[in-house]
Amino acid sequence: MTKSDIRLRDILIALVLLTRLPLPHLPKEAFARQASAAWAYPLAGLAVALPACAIGGLALAAGLPAGPVAGVILTCQVLLTGSMHEDGLADTADGLWGGFTPERRLEIMKDSRIGAYGVLALVLGLGLRWTALTALIAGGGLWALVGVAVLSRAPMAMLMATLPNARNSGLSHSVGRPSAWACGLALCLGLVCAVGFAGFAGVLACVAAALATLGLALMAKAKIGGQTGDILGAAQQCSEIAALLTLAALI
């Protein structure tokens, strides 16, 4: 992938893959560019967070306190993404801790049923996001969430490029491996938006997100030999949680 290979349609492809927004129908051949479109994954975060924060701002103006407003914003995000990243987090927790061999872990991750580890991951993940976002809103940092949403989608492209596929099927395998240019552009978008919406605290949020992604990547490589679509969803959630907690401590 080169500069000249960036296309506006990549944004639409990323939105179709990562959101449940009502979008124009794309021809089947357009999805041959799924790997090349990975640079636009952070823009899916922008498309999700902007309306969520706008609704949150209206709720604040209507007199709702920070806690309920944070709940409204999280609900909007879940609806706009179809909870696909939360699903990945739950499946990852069930698989990585519920099996004793790579084959069994992958089998558990593919199972549509949720186990105790998955439930705990969802409860803890949503709880940490809710409380951190409540602190951000109370401190006047509502719109910092936009930077976090953009930033947290960049690690997905990085893991797709740096970790092998753990299985020979599934969403991540069908998408393919992004180029170094696509990953670099995704990271730049995440960093610029994080700093643009949160200032210097956004830099530290980027560091926290990177460490969370690295930890997950090492664990996935050790336990299942690489990444899957569930691992990518978990990466988005872990990096978002790490970034939100960092900003909540600083803003």
Cα Rg:
17 Å
Largest sheet: number of strands, sense, barrel closure: none
Number of domains: 1
Shape by Cα distribution: globular
Q: Would you report the number of β strands?
A: 0
Mean pLDDT: 94
Q: How much of the sequence is in beta strands?
A: under 5%
Helix and strand succession?
A: HHHHHHHHHHHH
* Uncertain runs: none
The number of helical runs is: 12
Helix % is over 70%
Amino-to-carboxy terminus distance: 38 Å
Helix/sheet category: mainly alpha
Describe this protein's structure:
The chain is mostly helical. The protein has one domain (39-250). It is built from twelve helices and no strands. Helix 4 packs antiparallel against helix 5 (102-110) and helix 11 (200-224) runs antiparallel to helix 12 (229-250).
List keywords for this structure.
single chain, 251 residues, mainly alpha, 12 helices, 73% helix
Short characterization:
The protein contains twelve helices and no strands.
Which helices and strands occur, and which strands form pairs?
Layout: H1 9-18, H2 41-61, H3 66-81, H4 84-98, H5 102-110, H6 116-138, H7 144-151, H8 154-162, H9 171-175, H10 180-198, H11 200-224, H12 229-250
Helix pairs in contact: 1-2, 2-3, 2-7, 3-6, 4-5, 4-6, 4-12, 6-12, 7-10, 7-11, 7-12, 8-10, 8-12, 10-11, 11-12
